[in-house]
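Hi L.,

As promised, 2-octaprenyl-6-methoxyphenol hydroxylase:
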Amino acid sequence: MQDALKNTGNIVIVGGGPVGAVLALLLAKQGIACTVLEARKQGAAFTESRALALSFGSRRILERLGIWPQLSPRATAINTIHVSQKGSIGRSVLHAHDYQQEALGYVLSYGALSEALDTALAEQPEVNFIFEASAETITHNTTQASVTYSHQNQSHTLDSTLLVLADGGRSLDEIAGLTRETKEYGHDALITKVRAELPHNNIAYERFTTNGPMALLPNGERDFSLVWTGRKDLIEPLLTLSDDAFLAQFHAQFGDRVGRFLSVEKRMCFPLRLSQLKTSNTQHLVVIGNAAQTMHPVAGQGFNVGLRDAGALAKQIAITPVLELGSSEMLATYQTSRKTDTRNGLLFTDFLVNIFSNDILGMPALRSTGLGLFDLLKPVKKHLVSKMSFGK
Ligand SMILES: Cc1cc2nc3c(=O)[nH]c(=O)nc-3n(C[C@H](O)[C@H](O)[C@H](O)COP(=O)(O)OP(=O)(O)OC[C@H]3O[C@@H](n4cnc5c(N)ncnc54)[C@H](O)[C@@H]3O)c2cc1C
């Protein structure tokens, strides 16, 4: 770490969601100061119950930050992943103990993670976290990037040698040098929580149907988080069904592995897209997390890729001399270090969606055989577990 970097206060992170907050904490742990601009009110995200699929590698990052002990009682371990396809007998099962891992991953609510991160950040004097600060415009030139934001009905501008955009892709698309490539699937994801007759035994289920994949993740003592994806015209009507009718339809698609489904919580739906932000000539500006890439949730990759963005950027900042922060060379080195992981995450999820959601003649039988064979191929499974756990 460069001593000269300590407390420069010149790094600005736009967006204090999980990825921006993790970056701020990683920097603080190395004595590097930053300012975080976050649009929401303090504590507003704590009640968000939607589930995040955390890889084993992401747990390691949270351990390094010292917040895993608070999170661990609120996280549900995934010890087994069961992959199947509706209408075929092929299936594949991955067990954590076969890979000498304590767990294959964890399910954690967005709210629990936000609370732990915000609490830890409040104890860091190096981090100037400004809530209810909404970034409105970002500009950049060869010497700095600037952000204009509104806070308490006033407009402010901050100049920075390194401005990190971590807004989840929610707000600021009109920035010179940034272009978004998007692939619309025409599919929606329905998310909710369901309770089943049988306990989950820490098993996560990935089930592929010709309409699209669904994931049932153990969450809490008795419940599952459900992500049910498919064509918009098939998913949208599921929102307005009565609870009983919804559970009956879900049971018909999912099968009997956990018995009958007893109850369902509030249902929410959002459109699925694969998108990646391309940057050219954006000195002093870097984009990470969901703002940089959005993936289909089928393989639980997106959030974990975002955390690895934060990890890699924190490392790069720590080894860069202060006068070179935000330079083309520094940003090119960072982008190169993230290229393979990001591309693989995007390709892997796209591949899964396409191969399992396609009903061309003969494909279901081939997929079924594929899953059966895959179950026998230990090195392939090992590679998959390593990829899902650590992005390797
Ligand atoms: C509806 C939905 C459901 C999802 N379900 C799953 C799932 O089941 N499993 C899974 O693993 N992943 C899921 N994801 C993806 C997961 O939420 C993201 O991967 C993760 O949140 C990425 O974190 P992030 O910090 O990059 O972005 P975000 O979590 O989006 O955080 C961005 C932050 O930036 C702030 N912000 C935005 N604009 C501004 C601005 N102009 N100025 C200041 N601050 C700003 C926001 O308030 C927010 O706090 C889902 C995403 C969505 C949208």
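Residues 3 and 31 are 9 Å apart (CA to CA).

Thanks again for sending the construct details.

K.
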